[in-house]
Amino acid sequence: MLDTERLRLRPPQADDLDALHAWRSDPAVVRFVGGRTLDREEAWQRLLRIAGHWSLFGHGLFMVEEKASGAVIGEVGLFYGRRDLGPDFDAAPEIGWILAAAAHGRGYASEAARAAQGWFAATQGDRRCVCMIDPAHEASFRVASKLGYKSYRSTDYHGSSVTLLERLPA
Fold first, then answer.
1. CATH number of the domain that 10 lies in?
2. What is the distance between the alpha carbons of residues 163 and 6, in angstroms, rounded to a whole number?
3. Which of 59, 128, 131, 161 is the most buried (most CB within 10 A)?
4. Nearest residue to 71 via CA among 13, 140, 8, 14
């Protein structure tokens, strides 16, 4: 478990389903991550996939809790997406973040991602990490920039243009 000033990051639990389904079924939240909402069964499968990554690799996406309310408001962490985008992307750990709409614009994504990235470097080694962002998602580019990510190429992913970014070890 990781604590920041306002957030708690922890591995997923079975009772995170309702919260995960709420943000993953909100069109405003998924607009820049494929644009497709998840039904409850798909949200359950995603939760199991997140938990399985922790089991296989000892790291993965954390569930993000707002300390003040105790609400689970998103997911953030580093994982292996194996997206078939080439060895320059697929071989590196990928950072990702997605937060409920009510958490947008509050600096939570940067706060949580910075904590997850620091924990990952300390426990897994500081190494090259990657992420991919929809070219229209300005807020995610700001988060990535704060974390030290720089664009290195654009490509197509599932029929949409994405920008690939990397962060080199310190």
1. 3.40.630.30
2. 30
3. 131
4. 8
